[in-house]
Design brief:
about 40% helix; six-stranded mixed β-sheet; 6 strands; 7 helices; alpha/beta
Length: about 200
């Protein structure tokens, strides 16, 4: 079965897209069968395959980001971190689409913002994380970057208290990503269901 069907079967993508076609044709036709010793090695393997393709194309930072999202999403799926919500909207957090959210059995969300480089708006990711914490006080927010050489300056900002909503900055190509995935696997995740916007005695 082709990967595009696997991605759709598992609801990682809703429909055929350029990024899913690139993933299928240039990374793997079945992401579930890729042999990788750890999540970070899976990410490095997939990104190397994508870079080999991308080196023959005109640079496209937006496509880099979309493919990176697919790599992380398929990695989490392989590690059985489900259910997860992709491009997720959260009630009472307006105008924000979170890249990935998992909702724990303990009734708090874990949000992941996926970025390939510092050129992408990490400040926006921090503001979105703050907005989530206003609604869900126990929410956890993680900024996952592609490579460890991109994370050093943000880790310093986090240490200095300059990032208020983000709990941790993680490099996907490093062992710290393996540790993050291991910690994620310790939780049980649920579908939180729908929330009634208003409850009470309705007078018509």
């Amino acid at each position: 079965m082709a990967t595009k069907n696997k991605l759709r079967e598992y609801h990682i993508v809703k429909a055929k897209s350029k990024s899913s076609v690139i993933f299928t044709e240039h990374i793997s036709d079945d992401f579930t069968t890729i042999s990788a010793a750890s999540p970070s090695k899976y990410v490095k393997y997939c990104w190397a395959k994508y870079e080999s393709y991308a080196s023959t194309q005109k640079q496209n930072n937006a496509m880099n980001g979309k493919v990176f999202e697919l790599i992380i999403e398929t990695c989490l799926f392989r590690e059985k971190i489900t259910p997860m919500f992709l491009q997720a909207k959260v009630t009472f957090v307006p105008n924000v689409d979170f890249d990935v959210i998992c909702f724990t059995e303990e009734q708090y969300p874990i949000a992941m913002s996926l970025k390939t480089s510092l050129r992408e708006r990490y400040k926006q990711a921090d503001l979105e994380a703050i907005a989530l914490k206003y609604v869900h006080r126990n929410a956890k927010n993680y900024l996952i970057m592609l490579k460890s050489d991109e994370t050093a300056s943000l880790k310093q900002k986090l240490k200095k208290g300059e990032l208020l909503g983000i709990n941790e900055v993680i490099a996907a190509d490093d062992v710290e990503f393996d540790e993050f995935v291991d910690n994620m696997k310790k939780n049980k995740y649920i579908n939180p269901g729908k929330v009634d916007i208003i409850t009470g005695n309705l007078v018509k």
